Amino acid sequence: MSIPSFGTWPTPLEPARQLAAAVGLDELWVKRDDLTGLGGGGNKVRKLRHLCAQALAAGATHLVTTGAAQSNHARLTAAAGARLGLAVTLVLRGDPPAQARGNLVLDLLAGARIVWAGDRATGEVAAEQERRVRDDGDVPFLIPFGGSSRHSARGYLECAQELEAQLPGIDRVVVALGSGGTAAGLVAGLGAARVVGVDVGAVPDPVATLRALGVEGELPMIERGQVGAGYGTLGPGVADALRLAARTEGLFLDPTYTGRALAGLRACVADGRIARGERTVFVHTGGLPGLFAHPQIRPELQP
Ligand SMILES: *Cc1c(COP(=O)(O)O)cnc(C)c1O
């Protein structure tokens, strides 16, 4: 099976000295998986490499996937389809907004066909779209929610191997946990004891999600204090985290995933779950376009 490259690997691992001092760590590094090349970058690119290899091996001509209106995964699936010459249908939750913003602008630029699920379940609408593609004589390939499967988690096993080669003696790797493939792959590569997943509220039960993705035995630490009022909302800790990364390192995080991940890292250091002396890596998983569509971002981010 030939696996599309989609980018330049390994992604950089950068020291973040000011941010380390601000959060209370002796040593903090940022794994720049926001710089994964394709389509504005982000963690979904590593998973999509493996999913697209499966799609091509199956003779697919049309990718179908699901997500929230501001799904980074949907945006990167649109970009991957464009790169590979495959048609793309994105089934997005809810109704079309009055104006396309953020990721939605990029989905449309890349030529994806967008189907709004309204009040129906996206999975049901996606199954209908697969049938429709087949009726048109094309070959659909359904990419699972968030691009997470046992197979695609391999993309983060590879990221773990990159990290081990870039920096010896890593104690902790902190990452946002959504559909779970990213954390599951890191656990496979680094062992559960070194991984901290910050729940963003994308799935009802992150433990069941990790189990379904092949995490057996010991679980990683899961920080659950950052969901706040829900996946699409912006709590004060997350707004603070966005400001802190921007003002200490010139590093822009997103309000849904990486902002929560940094807020979670701060919470873990504050209560001692991560000790000051632990050599810590923060995985920047991308997501910046979502910042420009977040309904709460303007009032919350006033200084
Ligand atoms: C999807 C996403 C995550 C979470 O990754 P999962 O593999 O779904 O858990 C983290 N950060 C960003 C920016 C994402 O888009």
TrEMBL record:
The modification N6-(pyridoxal phosphate)lysine is found at residue 44. The keyword Oxidoreductase does not apply. Its cofactor is pyridoxal 5'-phosphate. Pfam families: PALP. Keywords: Pyridoxal phosphate. The active site is at residue 71. Transmembrane segments: none annotated. It comes from the Bacteria. One of its GO terms (biological process) is alpha-amino acid metabolic process. One of its GO terms (molecular function) is D-cysteine desulfhydrase activity. Residues 6-286 form the Tryptophan synthase beta chain-like PALP domain. Belongs to the ACC deaminase/D-cysteine desulfhydrase family. This is 1-aminocyclopropane-1-carboxylate deaminase. It comes from Dactylosporangium sucinum. The gene is dcyD.
